[in-house]
User: Fold this.
Amino acid sequence: MTPPDTLTGSVERITYFNDETNYCVLRLKPDQLPLGRDQLVTVVGTMNEVQPGESVRLQGEWTTHPKHGRQFKAEVVTQVRPATVEAIKRYLGSGLIKGIGPVTAKRIVDFFGEETLDVLDRMPQRVRDVPGVGKHRSKLIGEAWQEQQHIKEVMLFLQGHGIATGLAVKIYKQYGAQAIPIVSRDPYRLALEIFGIGFRTADKIAQDLGLPPDAPARIIAGVLHALNQATDDGHVYLPLPELVTQAAEMLEVEPEKVEDAIQTMSDRGDIKTDLVPDGLEQHEAVYMPPMFFSERGAAARLRTMHETPTSRLDDLRDTDWTKLLGDLSAGSPVQLTKQQQDAVRQALSSKVSVLTGGPGTGKTTTLRTVIHALERTRHRFMLASPTGRAAKRLSEATGHPARTIHRMLGFSPGERGFVHKEENPLDADMIVVDEASMLDLYLFYNLLKAIRPDTHLLLVGDVDQLPSVGAGDVLRDVIRSNVGPVTRLDAIFRQAETSQIIRNAHRINQGDSPDTSNQSNDFFLFVAEEPERAADLLVDVVQERIPQKFGLDPVSDIQVLAPMYRGQVGVSALNDILQERLNANPKGRKAERRLAGRLFRVGDKVIQTRNNYDKDVFNGDIGRVHSFDMTNHVMVVEIDGRQLQYDWSE
Assistant:
């Protein structure tokens, strides 16, 4: 058998990395080439994630790709310490070590030479002797170096259990130097305490460590995973039999062991159980505590608002509605229908009311009239929506300031809760929430806690839209509760009839097939049977067709939605393709960094995927990567005109 070829060098850049398969394409600066040429080498193969600047030893073979030419196919990849002065400079200056950029790296290596890494390992305090570094900065560098060594230990630990090493930074940030002992004692803490690490990852570590399949800790973790998965899927609870079946099948244990675990968890307060109506009968439901208290609390709050006799709009009870509505519409080119007039009157006379209807049915016109009435009668109101984009549209449509619900409620990092709550309610006569179909149960409960019992609440939204991403089906549940009047607008106004999107939305609601003739000016259907062809077609539509036909910017004005993450037409693959087409970096002039398995580049369009109250940014907020601070390990993202700093570990 021919021995494998060996190649050593430092990673210059990562061209491609698939965090599902660990397949990687990178460019390597070799320590030396067989042909003696000073150039970069393309390396391909399956490997754990590496970063630019790291030194590696590769074993494999030289191959020739028909399109990309000569490249090294790596079978074994081993990270090694850089041995030469130049390699050490590249390593330290690559951004791997927080606080050390190219200039500082050169100063340190010029001072210590080939002993640099030994000095950092054994006597990091000596860095303060380097001219231009200083005592304070040398202390930060020493701490960052030690942190990096701990992270590498966590990487090796994960690698030994077949887990993606990209999780190492998150684990170290959570548990510090005790990361490996903590994870070894109770791997399931990972799934409970670190966002982005699921039960299956923790379970694989636990199984590798020899934990029995029927260990109580494993079954409890599996039950929590099933409940959390249900919450992620939008459910507030799971029926007990369904939870037992799901957990038993996933864990491959007897249902009786799952039932015992559920009882133990209930006794400890880790979960909540309750009887809920199921037609004419009842069944036992199992909740995560936040969902249990949110559901019960929201129902109680709505009931209190409905039953409280006083109202901050009491002065409107004897209003001549015909006259008021006539005055409000005077001079307006748009006259309200009877449905719309009823909706205005109900919002101003009922503590809780709902205005719903499909697109183009006049919800916004009706809402503007409600606001006009409140202004004319000198009443205070607040406008809010679940997301930043929806709030912006609401503000543009009404001409009044609108905020996200999170920002309206305020958040106190010190108290880790909202500023406005029972003890400090919102000072408004009416709260209007637009796009209420996006409301999840937890946020709705926190909103209700901040509303006085005598304040009016108007929920506006299309009940036929998909329910919220978060758990719960708030708008439909409020409608079904009969806690207040509901106006369903169903007439499409003339100006909306020209939109095929609107017409098709109503056709679908009525059970009819949409018109896919592609004869309109805003609704088009393109069909491709093969995934690769579908991906190519989608990119062409985004990059060429839509911008040419409608004059839209492919990055700022177009949003691609995909129903799955994996596959050639999944979110991950499409993001990679669109990044290369719409924000290419052929000459490496744009700053970029691979973080947690994904390449981020200046100019990339990004979306916030969970609420970050400390940064005042929320799930669904969209922005652009503005810049990188390679020395301090920070990515700057611009969202709604604000520049937010994200540590690379985030």
